[in-house]
Design a protein that fits this description.
The complex is a heterodimer of chains A (about 110) and B (about 110). Chain A is built from no helices and twelve strands. Chain A is mostly beta strands. The chains are: A mainly beta (about 110), B mainly beta (about 110).
Chain lengths: ~110, ~110
């Protein structure tokens, strides 16, 4: 079945450091890919998405490019801030029968220190 | 999110008791989902609904049942709670994108 594998955490960075969180996927067909962010005590929020190969999703300085040839969707940010501390989830849409079920990776906790 | 309300937000219950979690949406979305979040597992789909009285199982449905008698409400029931069902439960809706509720933290002692 479809699956998502993302970089194990936790990740600890200093403010203004470069961030990469790796995500690879296994899927039949052509899924859409997502990054969600979860701040402490809250639900998940969509950070960015890409719906087809070579699409780049971007939001709040974060970027990820849908790479079909490497089945990857790595999350990057050039300069992280303390406010970026959160748990990040990579996900794909498992659109079997039109039900749009999401399959999630295990999450990567990011802590950014001042 | 303002469109999804989960209740209760926190609950502690004893092993063997029945528990019902409620998800209420105000956006009239067709698709609704229940996920559980556990450390080291991310979010896993329990059940989902694609319309009133139309539901199906997800990846981790054993020990759970759901009902959807109205578009706006999707109930998740643990018939006889076990300690392995201690988790954070998230409801979500889908309409050109997912929206998640704020979660219910359930502890089974």
């Amino acid at each position: 079945g479809n699956s998502v594998t993302q970089m194990e955490g936790p990740v600890t960075l200093s403010e203004e450091a470069f961030l990469t969180i790796n995500c690879t996927y296994t899927a039949t067909g052509y899924p859409s890919l997502f990054w969600y962010v979860q701040y402490p005590g809250e639900g998940l929020q969509l950070l960015l998405k890409a719906t087809k190969a070579d699409d780049k999703g971007s939001n709040k300085g974060f970027e990820a490019t849908y790479r079909k040839e490497t089945t990857s969707f790595h999350l990057e940010k050039g300069s992280v801030q303390v406010s970026d501390s959160a748990v990040y989830f990579c996900a794909l849409s498992d659109d079997q029968g039109g039900s749009e079920k999401l399959v999630f990776g295990k999450g990567t906790k990011l802590t950014v220190n001042p | 999110d303002a469109g999804i309300t989960q209740s209760p937000r926190h609950k502690v219950t004893e092993t063997g008791t029945p528990v019902t979690l409620r998800c209420h949406q105000t956006e009239n979305h067709r698709y609704m989902y229940w996920y559980r979040q556990d450390p080291g597992h991310g979010l896993r789909l329990i059940h989902y609904s694609y319309g009133v009285k139309d539901t199906d199982k997800g990846e981790v449905s054993d020990g759970y049942s759901v009902s959807r008698s109205k578009t706006e409400d999707f109930l998740l029931t643990l018939e006889s709670a076990t300690s392995s069902q201690t988790s954070v439960y998230f409801c979500a809706t889908f309409n050109y994108g997912y929206t998640f509720g704020s979660g219910t933290r359930l502890t089974v002692v």
